[in-house]
Amino acid sequence: xxxxxxxxxxxxxPNPGLVRAGDRASDAPCGPVRIFxxxxxxxxxxxxxxxxxxxxPGLRVVHIAAPGTLPAQDTVVDTDGHAHRAYDITNPTLLLxxxxxxxxxxxxxTNLSAIxxxxxxxxxxxxxx
Length: 129
What we know:
The chain has 129 residues and is an alpha/beta fold. It has a single domain (10-122), classed as 3-Layer(aba) Sandwich (Glutaredoxin), CATH 3.40.30. It is built from 3 helices and 8 strands. The chain has helices spanning 35-39, 82-86, 112-122; strands spanning 10-11, 29-30, 33-34, 45-49, 60-65, 75-77, 93-97, 103-108. It has a 6-stranded mixed beta sheet, with helices on one face. Strands 2-3 form a two-stranded antiparallel sheet. The model has no long low-confidence stretch (mean pLDDT 89).
């Protein structure tokens, strides 16, 4: 089931892959943990693929690094690339996953303001860019 055309789905990437805002988040092994492990809880979670400097006050951020990169603090290394393939990630990307495990907002890693605006719309006013 997908909600790509829903007002709760915002896709900001110029060339999104197969997985888009409005799709259900996928599970995948990611180093020593699974994606569903890091999404667990009653809060939205920002998956920051290959964007280790991303911070967003008021929002749980999980950094996911490609194999062979030097991870920053609080980063999960996608050792075998399973998470990158499951989400069809080829460029630094931000995916805001809602508590219902659907991707609410997707943006290039350089567009944190789109994530913050979406986060404030669904859970105002806790999230700042």
